[in-house]
Amino acid sequence: MPMLKKQGIDCEFLCVHLTEDQDKYKVVTTPLEQSGIKVHCIESRNTLNYGLLKAINTVVKAGQYDLLHAHLLYSEVWLTLVKILFNRKLKLVSTKHGYDEKFTHLYGFDPSKRLYNLYYFLCRFTEKFMLRSFTISQGLHKLFIGINICKADKLDLIYYGFEKKFATLRQENTYREAPQQLLIVGRLMPYKGHTYVLDAMPKVIEQFPDVKLLIIGTGPIEQELKEQVKTLQIEKAVDFKGYSTAAMQYMASSDILIVPSKSEGFGIVFVEAFEVKTPIVAFDVHASNELIEDGKSGHLVRPFDVDEMAEKIIDLLIHPEKRKLFVENGYKRLAHPFNPKRMVTETMTFYERVLKNEK
């Protein structure tokens, strides 16, 4: 948004946060305000009520915006209902950052599958009120078209642009806890695939008895994963770190980042690893295989082959020259295609296309 503003687009940000979340939302709003973006905050007791919709409409009415850009399904639902209830002339667009976690856990991004649940029907409903949308990966693009949520002629693709912030962390190496250190960063959710890495660890430990796997993140399957660690008798080799503000420092100090997800909307963790020059092992699924060039900027593993996962981890631990090759090639990908200037240019073109077609 600050880069869009520098290009002459007057951007404002509307943040809806739950009362129970207290000040957590400020991790997003404070940097925006510091960069000159006007921020509107609405506190709500729950995720959907008439008072919330009225409050959103008050902001929208006062702003007289040319476009309202929804991110994630909640905001699509809110803006759609505001349009229906208060102002049919509102012009809505959206970004598809991901899809239903239950579907993703079962099927990844397989467009031939169907799960007719509330999430699916809300997506179809809200999309009817969007003038145009874009996804952040090819996998999502194919999924939203394949399961009949979006029409191909109204759905674009714009990859994230990543602004470098952490390049010097690799030089510090202050968060290393073992001679060989592996890392997973992400919510502890079934579709994130932590269980596959845990199953692979005994084979890795045979080759590297002092190896340690650090797991950063929290989520509903944390206890289940801890029980799996006990069953596999690998407690000494696995450390659950919980939520950590030092995730990037841990990444920069680790030998390998492992991304075992069944699918990723984009996977910002990949480009973060590119920047701090940490090699990656991931499953050959969307959008992992859009960011990683197998054998060039990382290892892609057959989904969901635990033995191959272990072999690829061992391969990188044995061969530091391969790790060096991967990180150098990964770092180059930050310049193209994952640079912020390209994202800003494509986003502006997207807005212009929508407004031109509506005149």
Quickly list its features:
4-stranded parallel β-sheet, 15 helices, alpha/beta, 6-stranded parallel β-sheet, Rossmann fold, globular, 17% strand, 359 residues
List the helices and strands and how they pair.
Elements: H1 2-6, E1 12-18, H2 26-34, E2 38-44, H3 50-63, E3 68-71, H4 72-85, E4 92-96, H5 101-107, H6 118-127, E5 130-135, H7 138-146, E6 155-157, E7 180-185, H8 194-207, E8 211-216, H9 222-232, E9 238-242, H10 247-252, E10 256-259, H11 268-276, E11 280-283, H12 288-291, E12 299-301, H13 306-318, H14 320-332, H15 340-358
Parallel strand pairs: 1-2, 3-4, 4-5, 5-6, 7-8, 7-10, 8-9, 10-11, 11-12
Helix pairs in contact: 3-4, 4-6, 8-9, 8-13, 11-14
* SS-based class: alpha/beta
CATH architectural grouping of the largest domain = 3-Layer(aba) Sandwich
Our count of domains comes out at 2
Rg for CA atoms: 22 Å
Report the principal-axis shape: globular
N-to-C order of helices and strands: HEHEHEHEHHEHEEHEHEHEHEHEHHH
Strand content: 15-25%
**Main sheet: strand order:** 9-8-7-10-11-12
CATH topology of the largest domain: Rossmann fold
Q: Roughly what is the average pLDDT, rounded to an integer? A: 94
| Poorly predicted runs of 5 or more residues | none
Count of runs of 4 or more consecutive helical residues: 15
How far apart the termini lie comes to 24 Å
- Tell me the helix content: 40-55%
In CATH terms, the superfamily of the largest domain is Glycogen Phosphorylase B
CATH C-level class of the largest domain is Alpha Beta
